[in-house]
Design goal:
single chain; alpha+beta; Elongation Factor Tu (Ef-tu), domain 3; Helix Hairpins; six-stranded antiparallel beta barrel; four-stranded antiparallel β-sheet; 5 helices; 15 strands; elongated
Length: 272
């Protein structure tokens, strides 16, 4: 059996081990500093669109806007065919004229004693009904030309001139600036640090600077991370939906991916 006597080889091995440990500690310093940045949560831009359509069936005659246009409240959006509505108004106007004549005759006969109160009451009721029908026809005709109910941008056009649209179907979708919102998800560990009205910072590719938003909605129940968050690690976690309204939406676009950080935290650790 041969016994090994300690020598220079062992000293060299010990020196190499000490050097490796020192280098590992040196490289660990900047890595630790990288973890000091606030945790970012993936999200995207959404909006509460204003859908504008017709009250009744019809064919689109004119379209005054296109997608991406800015529009002011009260500006014309589109018109629909109104031939049948004009005919209906003319018919009701004729009925009103006849009802007015009948009422005048019944009133005159009642004054002279040649008519009865019943005939007068019947004529008066018919006149009131005829006036109501005219008012209804005028309103329906006026609503064939639709103006913008808000100031904003035209986000989507669903029907073009010549196409037939059914009642209550949207023809255009409008986006007022105040209706843009940020949706993102946080884990339960980060939920306690959020409150209504709290400021968060939103970063997006191409944005010159971070956008400040205020929390407007915090989900009361958890859900699995939605498939829009493309991460194997994230999909298996239960998270809470958060919505925040940008103070100044700037150039944010619907569907745009963003990263959200807490405005009042630096270096906090949060599980995503």
């Amino acid at each position: 059996m041969t016994m090994r006597v300690p020598g220079q080889g062992d000293c060299a091995s010990t020196a190499r081990g000490a050097l490796a440990a020192a280098l590992l500690a040196l490289f660990a310093l900047p890595l630790a500093g990288c973890n000091d940045k606030p945790p970012a949560f993936q999200g995207w831009v959404e909006a509460n669109l204003i859908f504008v359509g017709a009250d009744e069936n019809g064919r689109v005659e004119t379209l005054s806007v296109k997608e991406g246009d800015h529009i002011d409240k009260g500006a014309p959006l589109f018109t629909l065919d109104d031939d049948l509505f004009k005919a209906d108004l003319n018919m009701n106007m004729a009925t009103l004229a006849n009802a007015q004549q009948t009422f005048d005759r019944a009133q005159q006969l009642l004054r002279t004693g040649a008519g009865t109160q019943k005939d007068f009451d019947t004529a008066q009721a018919a006149l009131r009904q005829a006036k109501a029908q005219v008012n209804s026809s005028q309103t329906r005709l006026a609503r064939r030309a639709i103006a913008s109910p808000v100031t904003g941008t035209v986000e989507q056009v669903y029907f073009r001139p010549g196409e037939v649209v059914t009642a209550s179907k949207p023809i255009v979708a409008l986006l007022p600036p105040g209706n843009i919102k940020i949706r993102f998800f946080v884990a339960e560990t980060a939920l306690a640090r959020l409150s209504y009205g709290q400021e968060v910072r939103v970063h997006c590719d191409g944005c010159a600077r971070d956008i400040v938003a205020k929390v407007s909605f915090i989900a009361k129940s958890a859900e699995f991370t939605p498939p829009v968050i493309y991460s194997e690690a994230e999909r298996a976690k239960l998270v809470y939906l958060i919505e925040a309204l940008p103070v100044d939406p700037g150039n944010l676009r619907v569907g745009q991916p963003v990263d959200v950080t807490f405005a009042d935290e630096k270096g906090a650790e949060a599980k995503r």
